[in-house]
Amino acid sequence: MNVVLPQPYLLFLGDTTEPGYAKTAFGLRDWAPERCIGEFSLPGATVTTGLPFLSPAQARNSGAQAMVIGVANAGGFIPPAWIAALVEALESGLDLVAGMHARLRDIALLRETAARLGRRLIDVRVPPEGIPVGTGKRRTGKRLLTIGTDCALGKKYTALSLARAFQSRGVDATFRATGQTGILIAGGGIPMDAVVADFAAGAAELLTPDAPAAHWDVVEGQGALHHPAYAGVSLALLHGSQPDVIVVCHEPGRERVLGHPDYPVPGLRDTIELALRLGSRTSPRIRCAGISLNTGKLDADEAARVIASESDRLGLPVADPMRGGEAFDRLVDACLS
Question: Would you call the peptide bond into 8 cis, given omega within 30 degrees of 0 as the criterion?
Answer without folding.
Answer: yes
